Amino acid sequence: xxxxxxxxxxxxxxxxxxxxxxxxxxxxxxxxxxxxxxxxxxxxxxxxxxxxxxxxxxxxxxxxxxxxxxxxxxxxxxxxxxxxxxxxxxxxxxxxxxxxxxxxxxxxxxxxxxxxxxxxxxxxxxxxxxxxxxxxxxxxxxxxxxxxxxxxxxxxxxxxxxxxxxxxxxxxxxxxxxxxxxxxxxxxxxxxxxxxxxxxxxxxxxxxxxxxxxxxxxxxxxxxxxxxxxxxxxxxxxxxxxxxxxxxxxxxxxxxxxxxxxxxxxxxxxxxxxxxxxxxxxxxxxxxxxxxxxxxxxxxxxxxxxxxxxxxxxxxxxxxxxxxxxxxxxxxxxxxxxxxxxxxxxxxxxxxxxxxxxxxxxxxxxxxxxxxxxxxxxxxxxxxxxxxxxxxxxxxxxxxxxxxxxxxxxxxxxxxxxxxxxxxxxxxxxxxxxxxxxxxxxxxxxxxxxxx
Length: 452
Ligand SMILES: Cc1cc2nc3c(=O)[nH]c(=O)nc-3n(C[C@H](O)[C@H](O)[C@H](O)COP(=O)(O)OP(=O)(O)OC[C@H]3O[C@@H](n4cnc5c(N)ncnc54)[C@H](O)[C@@H]3O)c2cc1C
Fold this sequence. Notes:
Keywords: Oxidoreductase
Bound molecules: flavin-adenine dinucleotide
Radius of gyration: 23 Å
CATH architecture of the largest domain: 3-Layer(bba) Sandwich
Enzyme class: oxidoreductase
Shape: globular
EC number: 1.17.8.1
InterPro entries: Amino_oxidase, FAD/NAD-bd_sf, Flavin_amine_oxidase, SQase_HpnE, Zeta_carotene_desat/Oxidored
Protein name: Hydroxysqualene dehydroxylase HpnE
């Protein structure tokens, strides 16, 4: 280890990644996390013997940086990845459809999936192929795409309501946490190009097989501490400012703490008030990124009602349903389902009793086996600030990692990672910040300067 001390503020996936990447190259890092645990937006709690995640998290096989983090944590075997993209799509009272990729090189792998997708008419399937080809020609980094909407772009390319709802919205809402009609074209195009039109296995879905609190909390903490890193929990940082000799200084629980470099890996809402104006003159604009909520509706049945690990739904308030029975530790023959509802503005303030009425009825319409089943538990988790709002214009508000204050770097899924606000984006941001910190420390060491 070098004698340099790096402070990482925020113990979500971005902060965890930055700390691990630094210590792997011999730089000591201390994580200052306001909450009593690591994991940030991914965490778990217990309720009547069940271990519950705050919200179902999935990743795609193309999320290489996130899977790299799992490897670093020695936890790559704690997730299950489909051997090929395969999603059953339910509709209320109807036969539904299935999207299953072929084992052909991309993007040909999608043709049989679309050809057999019964929720679209043959004409809509053909139009969807044409729109996919047009989408593949876009440059997601073009600033004009950040200013345009995905829904309008698809409508202009002949994508009718049914195709937008039953095909495009299914993926865009889940990956960007914003309805298709409100989503910026740039990140939506990036996700579709990478996941659906890229390598044939890119969209294969991965799901943790242990609670998030273990995967990103206790396992990550043990790994960081084993590597010589320090973790300060309950450590709230209220300011960062330049101090002597160009070293940044933090205020942690009211007391000053010096560091050779700082990675600020807190959500944009906090970063805008902690980062000083001289570091990021644009910082007040970050608040314009806003928030988009996710609601998870948790239902425990007295018997199995779903025979797949997860399904999607269209034409229903249900979007995706996951079987949480094994992960939660439920025993006794019942089944625990989590309904994950992205872009949940409509539901975030709805009372639990009302959600119970809406979602139990919706599940019964989708899952015939749920009709005679008894509900033994029902509860709701709400994440009002699950991600920033990935609407037109949001890309221009995302800052790069480097700031104007030497030694202060930004990280977090909301920064300019080229990815949506996801676990993959968070991990990428942590890797970038760690790389810039190392470069900064090398410069200080060799030149004695405190430049960025
Ligand atoms: C319900 C839900 C479902 C989601 N589903 C998916 C999914 O399926 N797939 C996917 O890829 N992504 C999903 N996401 C998004 C994903 O969780 C986030 O993009 C990612 O975890 C963000 O990581 P982060 O490290 O950037 O930020 P955070 O996880 O927000 O970490 C920031 C940390 O900073 C700490 N902090 C804040 N202020 C201070 C302070 N003043 N001092 C010290 N510490 C502070 C916070 O306590 C927090 O621990 C979901 C999010 C939610 C909420």
